[in-house]
């Protein structure tokens, strides 16, 4: 991986990217509110479980397919996997999160002159916008996939630091401990077949729906 691609990847996978990632907990705030997550061990169990049961079998394999579709210039495949991802968002908050962040990233890469986003359509999911940027900037796919997973995990840890709450050192210890889990999830995602992909996580869906009416929220999902 050359220096230019690495720098591009660091920029577009950063939590500082102005697309609003910090404002979403993806159901974790509801899990904390219910008492399911209340300490560092519980936070690790939650993040690792989410990683292997959802991210590694749905979002990461789907991003992998989008990366390959952009590389091949296959607009039909891009549209197919984009539509399937949006359709898989099974709560109002999850859907709004992906559409809002996808819109923000699409607008950002257009304003930066990174890529022509005109062919992406009106509703662009976050994985689609990220894959578009990765393709335009010639970032290697394996590194991009791992970076996406790390960015997701980092945001989950930050939610725990703020809301469990955990100390800053405890948060970094937690993130460091997840490194082998992230590598395993990325490797698994690259080999998942289409008929093995699944976003079946009813408990997470229920927590997300509860969050829609939760009193005293810090996050939008």
- In CATH, the architecture is Orthogonal Bundle
The CATH class name reads Mainly Alpha
Structural class: mainly alpha
CATH superfamily: Urease accessory protein UreF
Sheet-strand content, in percent, reads: under 5%
Global mean pLDDT: 96
Q: Number of helical runs?
A: 10
The helicity comes to 55-70%
Distance between the termini: 35 Å
Order of helices and strands: HHHHHHHHHH
- Cα Rg: 17 Å
Count of spatially separate domains: 1
Give the low-pLDDT segments. Answer: none
- Approximate shape: globular
Under CATH, the topology can be stated as Urease accessory protein UreF
Q: Characterize the main sheet.
A: none
Q: What's the β-strand tally?
A: 0
Provide a short characterization of the protein structure:
The chain is an all-alpha fold and 221 residues long. Helix content is 68%, strand content 0%.
Secondary structure elements and their pairing?
Layout: H1 3-12, H2 28-34, H3 40-72, H4 75-88, H5 92-111, H6 126-136, H7 141-163, H8 168-177, H9 179-191, H10 202-211
Search tags:
single chain, about 220 residues, mainly alpha, Urease accessory protein UreF, 10 helices
What does this 3D model show about the protein?
The protein is mainly α and 221 residues long. The protein has a single domain, classed as Urease accessory protein UreF, CATH 1.10.4190. 68% of the residues lie in helices and 0% in strands. The protein is built from 10 helices and no strands.
